[in-house]
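Narrative of activities, Objective 1.

The group set out to show that a structural description can be obtained from nothing but a protein's sequence at a throughput compatible with the screening campaign. Below is one input-output pair from the validation batch, recorded exactly as produced.
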Amino acid sequence: MKKHNFYAGPSIMPQYTNLQVIEAIKDFAGTGLSIMEVSHRSKEFVAVMDSAVAHVKELLDVPAGYSVIFLGGGASLQFAMVPMNMFEKKAAYINTGEWAGKAIKEARLFGEVVEVASSKDHNFNYIPKNFDVPADADYFHFTTNNTIYGTEWKKDPDVSVPLVADMSSDIFSRPIDVSKYSIIYGGAQKNLAPAGVTFVIIKDSALGRVTRPIPTMLNYKTHIDKESMFNTPPVLPVFAALKTLEWLKQKGGVDAMHKINMEKAALLYDEIERNKLFVPTVPDPEDRSLMNVCFVMSENYKEIEKEFAAYAKLKGMVGIEGHRSVGGFRASLYNALPIESVKALVECMKEFANKY
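Output recorded for this entry:
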């Protein structure tokens, strides 16, 4: 039976990427060596790194004056690296969920953090509006897509201070104006590559403004100057990231992917709204994520939640269980998930509802 992979991360990869990685594990670039054992300083791998950087810049239309680096440590390390490199006196954050909260916790180690708004009062089921960012903040940080609660920012915020974003789970899924940002970062294991590599897009002029000494490995300039080769990078995940970027380019780029993603999300949200058994966890359609569709059983059908979970699994749906803090179900519709899988889930929901 075909499996439909809705895991929130690590998550589905394009078949193109999987097959290219398999071949590179057997013989990378005709070297007779596996990608897992080749030197990161070999000309063959340096070409991979250079091409991955070039693809990111092309696909996101990154302006001049920005650097792209690939690091280890995941977005969780970036929660500390951002303030280490940017925080001098005060930072502004908005709290829209678990990962935003973790970023705030790390930033508070460096000084005053102004939490400009929070959606915690309704279990993070909306994006706060009409908040004010202090004009004297060193930067404003937000999390673009909230995988656990199923909310997403659909537009780049307009603020008067440097803008920093964690885009771990929706990078390359929709157009963004990179010129509005000082730093964009994210773990790759949701929309780009296997776990183990982190992408960071940095406005060069945003650095060098803090007076504290920065440990060498935590200094963005270290990795910019050494072109992500200061220490051994996560070689295989970087190669996989390049193949995903190539696939994305073949598909028509970010604009084309955004159109497909909106179609996939609309299919599933429409069924959730139509089907008497289910309700969305995010009330406002404007705030609903295109990447992580969260829903629960409606009030009259709570008792059959486990029965639906078992039925969905029987039909080949993998990874649709909701996060423990929300419950219910979560279908992650990342770039690599084909629309056929969304249609299969919708059909599964219809079939199950017909029993009741």
